[in-house]
Amino acid sequence: MDFPMKIPIFAHKSHLQPTTYMQHFNEINNIRGIAFTVAMLAASLLTAPAQTFIHYTTTDGKAWQQSKSRLEGKAATAPLLTITGQEEGHEFRAWGTCFNELGLDALRLLTDDAQQEVMRNVFAPDGDLKFTRGRLTMNANDYSRSWYSCDTVPGDFQLRYFNIEHDKQNVIQLIRMAQHHQPDLTFWVSPWSPPAWMKINQDYPVVSSRYNRQPKEKDYLLFEGLGPIDEQEVMTAGQQDGKFPKRLAAQDYMIQDPRYLQAYADMFCRFIDLYAEEYIPIDMVMYQNEAYSYTAYPGCAWTAEGTIRFNRDYLVPTLKKKHPKVKTYIGTFNTNRLDYVERIVDGLRNEVSGIGLQWEGRENLSALRQRYPELHLVSTESECGNGSMDWRAAEHTFHLLCDYIGHGCDEYFIWNFILADNGQSSWGWKQNALIQVDTKTRRHRYTGEYYAVKHFSQFVTPGSRMIGYYPMSEGLQAIVFVTPQQKRIVIVGNSTDKPCEASIKMNKKYLVSQLAPHSFHTFVER
Fold first, then answer.
1. Burial group, residue 435, by CB count within 10 angstroms (0-12, 13-18, 19+)
2. What pLDDT sits at residue 238?
3. Among 312, 379, 382, which residue's Cα sits nearest to residue 352?
């Protein structure tokens, strides 16, 4: 009888009969089969969906309570979402925030230890929020202490006097404190206003106000005298007759002379160079913040034609020549006039890498995602509220986080991460922040908005994929991610006055939870 070559393992048992050899051969193969089965079972256990989740809950009275949840065989209510495990999803790339002077002033009210605590919690890789991106402004923004410009010399087309000395003494100090905890921070930049000498009104705002010195006579420039300006019409946000703004600017406030347009494009490059010398890397540019808010603080109105002309003929080619690795995005769009936005993006589709949206721009997300699938969508500024820093503001921010990311945004930026008291600006309006500092006690507190963000950014790391979204309906909202480590993250919010049960179907089982009134929930697969 012929035997397999592996039989010599029993050669020292040469006195055994051939049938005994065969018995041993079969026993060995049986053992190997059992071992293979055990190995496959172990592998299947490792790759099978986990049955337990860590459950984090936040309400107005109690933040970040921890418990455990298990997948169950059935649910009493219809599931908000069904996750099969086959979803391709949409990759999420980064969480970030903006850097401004009033934030620095608020932080400096705290003790050194408290400052380190705050910055670690916001930026450190092992902190709460894990922000890795920063938004900058060239020249002053509405949360600077007052107006300033990087170039105050009229006609300086060669940029001989362009500098960032003001920034070095102020906002760059705040950036340094963040970099201490997150050395790999990267940044993007958008101006609120060009230098005043580059604008048709020769001033930093768009319209006059008691908070600036622009003569009221110049207000006619906005609509070229076609009717008076209604104060409600030029508010920073808020629809009139379903559209924002109710009327669009009749002309570009940026002077359209080629010398001015080229010098302005060169300013972006010079700004990137000077910040690089400070070890602050800028990898993305947007030409203007909120071109459709006609503001009393720093701002600049642009038409569709002016926007296309500047980006296509000046900014994009100049960046490609001097900074080929810096991406140009078009934004920030804060208007829900979809046809106007599409006209601009159509004119720049082959020139830009993405679209930045905030405020009313969010209403265009679904249409833009469908029309421009190749372009990245960025939530450039979470809505800033009215200085209340209360739970209602937190619920609104939670809703925005779900809605922007659920509709395809792959980066999300908070505007103010820290402010003092009611967050009032130098131009008289109030805003919210993730962290509020009391100027009298010099103590800080983490607002509800801080925890709204933490319920996302603590676990949804860059590279995670959004695989399911349940838009707001009857006060409930849910979104599901899978991390690069293949762990599922389920985030649910209940903004109603009543407790309720909510479930997410996962394959053939259900993640079921009792949701307290006005609560945030994050479930992290173990």
1. buried
2. 61
3. 312
Instruction: Give the separation between CA 178 and CA 279, rounded to whole angstroms.
Output: 13
Q: Which residues of 247-341 form beta strands (DSSP E)?
A: 282-286, 327-333
| Contact criterion met (CB below 8 Å) for 507 and 73 | no
pTM of the model: 0.89
3-state helix, strand, coil in the chain (%, to 5): 35, 25, 45
Give pLDDT tens digits for 48-85: 456 899 999 999 989 999 999 999 999 989 999 999 99
Decide: 264 and 256 in contact? Cβ < 8 Å. no
Residue type, 295: T
Instruction: Of 124, 241, 222, give the one whose Cα is nearest residue 179.
Output: 124
What is the spatial distance between Cα 436 and Cα 420, in angstroms, rounded to a whole number? 6
Q: 115 φ, ψ to 5°?
A: -60, -45
DSSP-assigned letter for residue 354? E
Site of tokens 């265009």? 364
Which tens digits make up the pLDDT trace of 439-458? 999 999 999 999 999 999 99
Query: CB within 8 A of 287, min separation 6: which ones?
Result: 190, 191, 307, 310, 311, 315, 328, 330
What is the pairing mode between strands 488-494 and 133-136? unpaired
Interatomic CA distance for residues 405 and 352, integer angstroms: 21
Q: What gap in Å lies between CA 347 and CA 148, rounded to an integer?
A: 32
With a cut of 70, list the residues of the chain below it in pLDDT: 1-50, 231-240
Q: Fill in the amino acid letter for 420.
A: A
